[in-house]
Amino acid sequence: MTVGIGIDFYIGNTKKEIARSEKHVKLEEDLQNYLLAKEGYPAKRYGLLINLDQYSNRVFSAREVQELVIICEHLLNEYKVTTKKKWEVDKTTWGINVFAEELKVLCLVALEQNKKVFAIGD
User: What is the CATH number assigned to the segment(s) 6-121?
Assistant: First the structure.
């Protein structure tokens, strides 16, 4: 598992399987807090994602994984980055965009492999 404060997303069917996994996506605490501040708590639009407890674990059903893909698509539209030059975009927008793209890919792989997505808090 990774170092840093936030929530790590993994693909697997068991906790033992994800413990061995190196592939994951991290929702950094500052990005989650930014989105919560913007959306209000509890967040309604992106609630399944940003209302997660940073100190607990969660397993998402296949339907919820599909919903996470939709949330990622909405975040990618809202925080659209039109350049490959990181220095031309503010840090928060860049971070949300990168996170949403990586989580979307992870969720699509999980759906394709018929596996679960785990959110592991620090």
Answer: 3.40.1760
